[in-house]
Structure formats: C-alpha cells, structure tokens
Design the sequence.
C-alpha cells in the first residue's frame, strides 16, 4: 500500500472551489494567493457532491478538471476528496433510507452533514459509483497525490438495516446465544435472549443497562464504519493503486476506535483545534501534543495535519484569535511530533451559511494584506526550510496507553463515581511525562510494549485477552510499568475478574485491591511519600501490598497509613501502582524519580514547565508555551530557521520556537 510519501512538507488547506464556480476571477485569484502564501497542497472538493452530481447519475466534473489543471500549472498538488460526508438533497428525497435513524427510532430529515446510514446499500452504491467516476477521471491527474476520503467519520445509525448488520456481527462474535447470554451476564434482571431478533441496539427507550451490549454496539459501530470505509475506498484501490488513502480524524473522538479504523487507510490525518489563548496554555499545548503523538502511532508513520485554523474557529463558545507567534509555533508543534503537512480549514471564507466566520487564509476582504495571511506566509517559509523532515519518525523511549475500548467501558460503568476522569487522568500523565522532556508514543493496549523504557497505563480498567500477559512479560524483560487506580477490573466483555483485583495483573503489580472509595468532587485525601503530602482525588483503591514494596501511604480517613503507592520488582523490571488520582506536583516528582532510577535522559535539561521539546531525526524543536519569554539551555547545532549557530543558554520569546539541527 502506498504511503503519504510527499516530496516536500505539505502546506495548504481545504479548498472549496465548488462554492465559487460562477466567479472565475476569484478562482484565478486563489491560485495567485496560494503561491504567495507558500501553499503547495490543497484538499479539494470535500463537500462538493451536489456540484459533482447535480442530478442522479449525471456527473459534472469539468469545473473540477479546470481547478486541478490550474493548480498543477502553478505547482500545487491536491488531496482529492470523495464527497460522501454530505449527500445532495435529491438523494435524500428519493431514497430516504440513506438518512440516519436515531437511538429513539426516529429517522432524521435531510440536512446538515455526516447524516447518512453506514449500512444502506443504496448509499454505498451511490458512493461507490461517484468514487469510481472520480478515480477514472482524475486518478492519474498530475496534481493528485492522494485521496481525502469523506470527512470526519462519526456517529451511529439505528435503522433496521443497521440492526440486522449488528445481529449478523454478533453471530460472528459470539457464535451462539448461550455464549452471548453468558458474556453479557443476561441472567441479571431477566435479560436472557432466546432469539437473535430480540437484540436491539442500546437506546434510552429500551436497553441501556447491559454493559456487554453497550460495549458490543460501540465495537460494532467502529466495525461498520470500517466496513463502509472499505467499501468506499474499494474503487479507489482498484483504479488508483498508486494513490494513498486517508481520512481526517478528530481530537479525542471517543466514539470510534481509531487504531481499528486506521487499518482501512494508508496514513492518518488529523483535524487540530486547540483552544489557544485559554487560561492554561501549557495544558492546551500538552493536549495538542498528545493528539499528534497518537496520530503518529496509529499507523506508525508520519501523519497529515489535515485541518487547523490560521486564526480562529467559529464554533467554540468564545473564539480567540491566535496571538502573534502562535500560528508558527502551533503549526511547527505538529511537525515536531510527526506531521508531514500543515493544512488549514479553510483556504477561503465562504460567503454564506454556518462557517462563513470560521478563520481562513483568505478573508472576505479578498486580498493578502492581512495579519493572518502574513502568519500563513511565515509558516510556508519555515516549512520550506524544514524540507527533508518529511517521512522521518520521532522516536520515543516512553509510551502512554490511552485505550478507546477501555474508555467506553469506563463511561458505561456505574460506580464508584459517575465521572471517572479517564481522559483527564491520561492527559495529566502525558503532561507530567512531557515535562520530563522526552518524546512520547501514545498507544492503545493492543500495541507492542516491548521497545519502551517505560509504559504508563493509567486506569486500565478493562484488560482484553493477552494484555496482562504481555504487560507482565514486558516487566519481566526489564520494562517499567506504571498503573493507577481502578486497574484490572473487567475482561473484554465487561465481566468482572474473579479472584481479586487487579485480576490478571495482580502478580505483576504485587498488590490486591480489596475495596475502592469514591471521593466527592471537592474532597481530597493525601499521599504521604518521601516526607511530603500530596493531595489526591476521585478514587482511592484500598490495596494490600502482597509482594510489592510500599512507597507511599494514604494520609487520611479510616484507611490512613495504608499503602497508596507501591513498587513491585519482577524479573528484570518493575511495576508501580498509584492507587488514586494525584495532582500535577505528585506526578512531576514521581516521574522525575522513576526517570532517574531507570536512566531515561531528557532531550533538554532543566526545562521550565510550559516549554515543550520534541525531536524528529536530527532536528530538535524547543517550543515556548509559557506565555512569557524564557531561557533554555539548548544543545549545539544550527538554527534551522535562520541558518545561524545556536546552542547554550538561548532565549525564546513569547510564543517563540527554536528548531535546532543537531551537530
Ligand atoms: C471540522 C470539519 C471541517 C470544518 C471544521 C471547522 O474539522 O472537518 O469541515 O467544519 O471542523 O472547524
Ligand atoms: Zn442505518
């Protein structure tokens, strides 16, 4: 299968010439402005179906050919979009089955986008035909370097076609109703089913209490989306095997398992909308970096930053402008973490409808004399200087596990607190690890752990078959594992492990969790450790150290003095357990001590918090998200953006970045 494999770092954005077909002057001006902005890669025609097929079976591709020809003549490449993200009105009118059915059983009306059934044979047929037609006409066009398939796949459909597909998938998964009844513990509340037809997707007007069903439905939604993607890309693969296929993914989107979905595409792309200018820029930057590290790990390949805004979005409660410096800093942050492109939503602001005030390279004023345009030009120049980085993978000594199926299981799980803060917890560990100044891989529990010096797997409540065994092997072979409260409770069907938590990790962690206390939102216990007391929140596992050594104890309540932080040596490695949800100061001290113990060195020593570093090949990025100027001690090299020597104590201005080609 082809890779992203661009001969340059890409720069550009979503381009919707379909909205301006009656304005040839504007289309011409677009090309001039793209060159001026240093853009070389556009994603074309993402929502253009009604322009491409104005009537059933009648394609009008000539306008698109002109656009691609003009782009090519100007040296600009294209990710060509398939238009399935939104269908034309004539289709919904004539074939209502293409529209989605909600969990309450009602069918949606035509409207919005991403509003189609993933099972409907009629929809699949329309998609297949237009994709084949696009591939035949443009698959060998010299401007086209890849397929942008659909847009931000998501959501589910509860129609009868989807119910039937769900039941068929369940038959494959479980084989017999007996096996399914057992896996879902259906004896509870008399939920035993005696006919496959009795099974319906989870819905607030029916079944929501069977966790095994809820989990199976979420798995099915991913599988059915993947099935749809495979059907959607089949004609592309057949007619244009030389072109890589991608689809754009969303920040922390929990409803699809992206590791599973990525098996259907050639490279990952990501739509990044951090809330720059908020109350905690370091946190915002850490969340952004976390997402980039995840995107890079989905295919173990560089990814495309498919969307980002050059100025502001229009859909946050308050839409902040990017302050001076932030556009370059935030764009290169993605490159530092493995992006081979910096692309925007959107190239030109639309004139009407819901996204007319979303940031764009070209504003309604229509010319290049804007702050945003100059910011975009700066990124274009910087990317030219960094050319050659594309294709290089950042290497990480540390992995953080963020598992989507685990997230689903925790979200449905009732008790010991409604909100378990799984994602927040994972992100807090990410920020603490990133403060240590190392590259981090973000992976799920299906991935290989073996190459890492340290694997942090907070709140791994669900352990699918083999995961505990692989983690145990990893530790025995010299790895360092960090687990936290609420680990090892259920198996892949959400059935509790019998014989003592954390189930199959009990031996590796050397502890038994007898009970777990839930804390009110504003309630705190404390961890006593190394002469300090650190506050902790939410969940307190009451554990017995079986073979583990006790490093810290609870401060308060009837379990004061009982173990809270433990370390179990096993084979050549060690497994730590932090039995609660600590705050940042604990995590900083904890990881500092663990890194010292196992000898993982930072890329840059003594980083002030808010300064991030990342390394890609021989290129080190130091990025200032502190909101003020800072000084950091950089290694010696050449400043890739200025060509000057750099090294030693170096000042980074507000929103400043230094890119060092190491000697
Ligand atoms: C998403 C979509 C785009 C656009 C942007 C706006 O990422 O993919 O089409 O709506 O949001 O931020
Ligand atoms: Zn459906």
Sequence:
């Amino acid at each position: 299968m082809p890779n992203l494999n661009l001969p340059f770092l890409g720069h550009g954005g979503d381009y919707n010439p379909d909205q301006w077909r009656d304005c040839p002057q504007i289309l011409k001006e677009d090309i001039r402005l793209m060159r001026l902005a240093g853009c070389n890669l556009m994603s074309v025609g993402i929502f253009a179906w009604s322009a491409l097929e104005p009537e059933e079976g009648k394609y009008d591709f000539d306008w698109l050919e002109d656009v691609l020809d003009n782009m090519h003549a100007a040296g600009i490449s294209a990710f060509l979009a398939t238009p399935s993200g939104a269908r034309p009105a004539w289709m919904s009118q004539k074939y209502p089955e293409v529209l989605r059915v909600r969990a309450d059983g009602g069918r949606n009306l035509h409207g919005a986008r991403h509003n189609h059934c993933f099972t409907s044979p009629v929809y699949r047929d329309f998609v297949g035909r237009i994709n084949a037609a696009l591939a035949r006409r443009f698959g060998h066009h010299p401007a086209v370097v890849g397929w942008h398939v659909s847009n931000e796949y998501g959501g589910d459909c509860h129609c009868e076609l989807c119910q039937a597909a769900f039941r068929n998938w369940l038959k494959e998964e479980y084989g017999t109703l007996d096996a399914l009844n057992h896996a879902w513990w259906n004896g509870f509340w008399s939920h035993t089913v005696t006919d496959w037809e009795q099974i319906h997707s989870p819905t607030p007007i029916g079944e929501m209490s069977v966790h095994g069903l809820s989990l199976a439905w979420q798995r099915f939604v991913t599988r059915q989306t993947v099935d749809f993607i495979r059907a959607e890309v089949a004609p592309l693969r057949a007619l244009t095997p030389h072109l890589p296929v991608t689809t754009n993914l969303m920040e922390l989107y929990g409803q699809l398992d992206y590791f599973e979905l990525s098996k259907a595409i050639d490279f990952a792309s990501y739509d990044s909308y951090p809330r720059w200018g908020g109350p905690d820029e370091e946190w915002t930057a850490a969340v952004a970096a976390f997402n980039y590290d995840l995107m890079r790990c989905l295919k173990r390949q560089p990814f495309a930053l498919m969307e980002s805004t050059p100025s502001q979005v229009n859909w946050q409660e308050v839409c902040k402008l990017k302050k001076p410096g932030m556009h370059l800093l935030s764009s290169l942050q993605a490159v530092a973490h493995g992006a081979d492109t910096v692309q925007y939503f959107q190239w030109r602001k639309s004139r009407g409808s819901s996204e007319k005030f979303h940031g764009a390279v070209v504003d309604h004023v229509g010319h290049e004399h804007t702050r945003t345009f100059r910011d975009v030009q700066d990124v274009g120049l910087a990317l030219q200087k960094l050319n050659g980085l594309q294709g290089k993978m950042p290497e990480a000594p540390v992995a953080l596990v963020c598992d989507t199926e685990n997230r689903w299981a925790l979200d449905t799980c009732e008790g010991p607190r409604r909100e378990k803060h799984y994602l927040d917890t994972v992100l807090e560990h990410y920020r603490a690890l990133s403060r240590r100044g190392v590259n981090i891989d973000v992976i799920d529990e299906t991935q290989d752990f073996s190459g890492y010096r340290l694997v942090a797997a907070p709140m791994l409540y669900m352990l699918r078959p083999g995961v505990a065994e692989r983690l145990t092997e990893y530790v025995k072979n010299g790895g360092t594992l960090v687990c936290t409260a609420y680990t090892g409770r259920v198996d892949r069907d959400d059935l509790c492990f019998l014989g003592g938590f954390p189930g199959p990790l009990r031996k590796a962690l050397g502890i038994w969790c007898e009970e777990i206390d839930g804390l009110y939102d504003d309630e705190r216990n404390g961890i006593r450790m190394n002469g300090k007391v650190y506050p902790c929140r939410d969940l307190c596992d009451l554990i017995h150290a079986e073979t583990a050594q006790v490093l810290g104890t609870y401060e308060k309540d009837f379990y004061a003095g009982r173990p809270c932080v433990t370390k179990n040596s096993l084979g050549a490695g060690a497994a730590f357990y932090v039995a609660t949800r600590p705050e940042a100061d604990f995590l900083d001290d904890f990881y500092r001590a663990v890194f010292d113990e196992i000898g993982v060195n930072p890329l840059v020593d003594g980083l002030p918090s808010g300064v991030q570093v990342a390394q890609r090949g021989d290129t080190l990025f130091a990025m200032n998200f502190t909101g003020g100027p800072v000084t950091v001690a950089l290694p010696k090299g050449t400043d890739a953006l200025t060509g000057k020597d750099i090294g030693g104590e170096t000042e980074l201005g507000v929103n400043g970045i230094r890119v060092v080609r190491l000697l």
About this structure: Residues 151-152, 248, 271, 273, 307, 313, 345, 355, 358 surround alpha-D-galactopyranose (ligand 1) (CB under 6 Å). Residues 398-598 form a domain with the Rossmann fold fold (CATH 3.40.50.880). The mean pLDDT is 97. The chain has three domains: 10-158+219-385, 398-598, 611-662.
